[in-house]
């Protein structure tokens, strides 16, 4: 029964009372009620967070539009635009955490890396070429991770965007299966991040370098989402390029 209950946390459907001894049939029925109530709570929470995100997005866009008009007219509003960028990023981070904590991490969901990383490879390879840079990949076929595709895309998009921004000329995207996990790595030949700042980069969202635009929250958002799905993100020095090496450690689907 314990194994069946754990399986139901990751899939829809109820336990079959007739599959168990008659002495525990009432308990099985109660468990089914609890499972259904939990699903309702999760779904309601996700709908509320989505509604809140939508409600905030419109006024934020209006404020941004007005600020850009003022800037075009010569008004000194860059600090206000930067503040709005950071507010939007903080909200995006909060909604990402709410979405993951709201049940995606416990539901039967997966991302096909052939599809997701293939799409990102095409998009970022083109952007890299436009910047005079090169994106290379090493991604074996058939890998899948236990993560909602929108959350996975959020992580990879942030990491590749950072690599494109800070690299000098080379970016490398790779993936490999490691036991029950899959490691996805993004490496670049930029100046990297000092080891003492690794914690700040993945937890606080602090901007470590203000020489380029951004909010400093990309790694923090990626780290939040990875942890919500039982994974983690690790920073190190790239053996290939001597720049930053970001490793995302996520559970394999086992399929």
UniProtKB/TrEMBL annotation:
Residues 51-254 form the Histidine kinase domain. This is histidine kinase. The keyword Transferase applies. Its EC number is 2.7.13.3. One of its GO terms (biological process) is phosphorelay signal transduction system. The keyword Nucleotidyltransferase does not apply. It catalyses: ATP + protein L-histidine = ADP + protein N-phospho-L-histidine. InterPro entries: HATPase_C_sf (IPR036890), HATPase_dom (IPR003594), His_kinase_dom (IPR005467), Sig_transdc_His_kin-like_C (IPR004358), TCS_sensor_his_kinase (IPR050428). Keywords: Kinase, Membrane, Phosphoprotein, Transferase, Transmembrane, Transmembrane helix. GO terms for cellular component: plasma membrane. It is found in: Membrane. GO terms for molecular function: protein histidine kinase activity. SUPFAM superfamilies: ATPase domain of HSP90 chaperone/DNA topoisomerase II/histidine kinase. It comes from Yoonia rhodophyticola. Its main location: membrane. Pfam families: HATPase_c (PF02518).
